[in-house]
Write a sequence for this structure.
């Protein structure tokens, strides 16, 4: 991993993302790009500045004021989160499209974004932004809670043996160092065989074989776990019971129907997990070197 994009609005809901992105860049000796995007059309609800109107397009004076507030907020965040040496880049346009395109053109290996504060409403809003980004990005996305202040020490990897889940696992493994733990977890729907397993196949054996072959930094413990039940609920319960601080999953494509499939498990985890969530979209698949 050589380049990371921190996408932020400068608010405290993205402080965890700023801290984690900076720490990860330092650990991996990666370049850190800081990006803030100003959307010129205000939301359909009343703006925080009470500029009036529904779906307001700012006047030139309002535009300048909002743009300056964004710049001030981002610079302030970088200072309070001790993100050193990064010069923020400011763009204008649809936020998620601008972030995805900036990551693609720069060759970034990871986008880090905030999940919002640890309240139901703020977390849901942050999760929605992350999910919208996942639908358009070709780059793995790491969504981080506002309270995060350190890199993950235990990561749960949701394994369904698809290329995207393997890509997510490889990305997540790069975040770990000696003494950390990576849990490879497969969830089979209760009462049904795994879609990947034939009549004589053993998911448990495949997981153990994957764990033995998985390339991780020296000293990282790899654990293979087989669960049964509702995938999202089982993963969330395992996250809590294992005291993990990150979960990684693979997305499943960009076609209309596959975007709906993405929402079934990934969206539940993004919205409800108390931890950071890393998702590798289908567009991020590369042939291992």
């Amino acid at each position: 991993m050589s380049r990371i994009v921190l996408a932020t609005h400068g608010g405290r809901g993205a402080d965890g993302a700023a801290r984690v992105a900076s720490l990860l860049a330092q650990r991996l000796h990666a370049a850190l790009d800081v990006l803030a995007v100003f959307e010129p059309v205000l939301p359909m609800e009343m703006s925080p500045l009470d500029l009036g109107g529904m779906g307001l397009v700012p006047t030139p004076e309002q535009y300048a004021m909002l743009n300056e507030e964004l710049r001030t907020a981002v610079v302030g965040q970088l200072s309070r989160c001790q993100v050193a040496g990064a010069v923020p880049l400011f763009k204008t346009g649809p936020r998620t499209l601008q972030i995805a395109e900036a990551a693609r053109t720069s060759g970034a290996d990871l986008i880090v974004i905030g999940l919002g504060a640890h309240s139901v409403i703020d977390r849901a809003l942050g999760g929605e932004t992350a999910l919208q980004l996942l639908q358009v990005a070709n780059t793995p996305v790491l969504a981080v809670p506002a309270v995060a202040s350190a890199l993950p020490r235990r990561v749960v990897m949701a394994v369904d043996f698809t290329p995207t889940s393997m890509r997510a696992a490889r990305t997540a493994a790069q975040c770990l160092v000696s003494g950390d733990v990576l849990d490879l977890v497969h969830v089979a729907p209760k009462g049904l065989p795994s879609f990947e397993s034939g009549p004589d196949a053993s998911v448990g054996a495949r997981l153990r074989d994957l764990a033995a072959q998985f390339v991780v930094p020296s000293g990282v413990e790899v654990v293979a776990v087989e669960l049964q039940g509702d995938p999202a609920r089982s993963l969330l319960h395992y996250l809590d019971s294992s005291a993990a601080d990150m979960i990684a999953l693979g997305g499943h494509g960009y076609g209309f129907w596959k975007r709906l499939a993405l929402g079934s498990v990934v969206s539940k985890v993004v919205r409800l997990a108390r931890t950071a969530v890393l998702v590798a979209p289908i567009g991020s698949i590369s042939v291992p070197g």
